[in-house]
Amino acid sequence: MTQVKPAQYNHVIYGRFGSSGTLNIKRSFQGSNEAGLFSVLNSPLNHRNILSRPIMSLLRKPMKQYPWLPWSIRNIYDWLHYSEPTWGYTIYRTTYTPQSNAAFPRMVDLTTKYMKNGFYGEYESSLRERSNANKFNITPWDEMWPNYQPRVIEDASQFDGASIDQLREHFRADAIERGVLDVFPGYRMFIVIDEESFQTLQNAPLPENSKYEEERRHYVKLIEALEVDPYEDFPGWMKCSLSSLFEVWSDMQDTAYMKDSYSMRPDGTDVL
């Protein structure tokens, strides 16, 4: 039986630009103002203004104003206010050895701890680098972090040794049925912990004990949920170090696709 920690959702219309420059609109909207909403979409707005937050935020102000939030954090903040009450990666488990049975919960916990480290790292870097840092406070970070809830999918009968293509098909089918494919990083990509990545995670340190030169020894596999382009060098997935998980999440909010992160891997390694 598949065990899932389901993400509750009540999403709104959300958009992003595809490689052709056209706006892909994902729809799930009820009410009498649909025509008015699409008139907003068709207005001559700058495309980054549309993409910088769920479309509904063009019509409704957030409950609290944090105009100084960095882009990557603003996107999460708006998502939680207008779309769903949680955010986070979906994690598929494809190894079911006795050893992994005991250790897998720690692997999930590691991904969460590294995501938290990257998430709060945005606050620390903003304090150092932004000219308006005196306006910053940690409150919105503390409001958002408890809503990070990874969705773990486990089912040995269905996923033991499953291929990347099989997992992508499963993820896509669920997201398409719910009308959320590609509307947010959590519906654009997912994590796989297979036997290979499981072995690299067994001795992975906590973020506070991590050494830069050793970070790429411990990784998961990130799979993009979009269809693979056979004419590109990007295979549709990549190995991602724990320390890069939030970096990729942030990049995938900024109108980018995983192939852009894939191209940023340092020379001499196949791990970001």
Describe the structure.
By secondary structure, the protein is α/β, with parallel strands linked by helices. The chain has one domain. It is 38% helix and 12% strand. The strands form 2 sheets. Strands 1-5-4-6-7-8 form a 6-stranded mixed sheet. A two-stranded antiparallel sheet has the order 2-3. Strand 2 (14-17) and strand 3 form a beta hairpin. It starts with a strand and ends in a 10-residue tail after the last helix.
Quaternary structure state of the chains depicted: single chain
Relative strand content: 5-15%
User: N- to C-terminal separation?
Assistant: 34 Å
Helical residues, percent: 25-40%
- What is the β-strand count? 8
Structural class: alpha/beta
The arrangement of helices and strands along the chain is EEEHHHEHHEHHEHEEHH
Low-pLDDT runs: 6-62
Number of domains: 1
Count the DSSP helices.
Answer: 10
Q: Roughly what is the average pLDDT, rounded to an integer?
A: 79
Main sheet makeup: 6 strands, mixed
Shape: globular
Radius of gyration: 19 Å
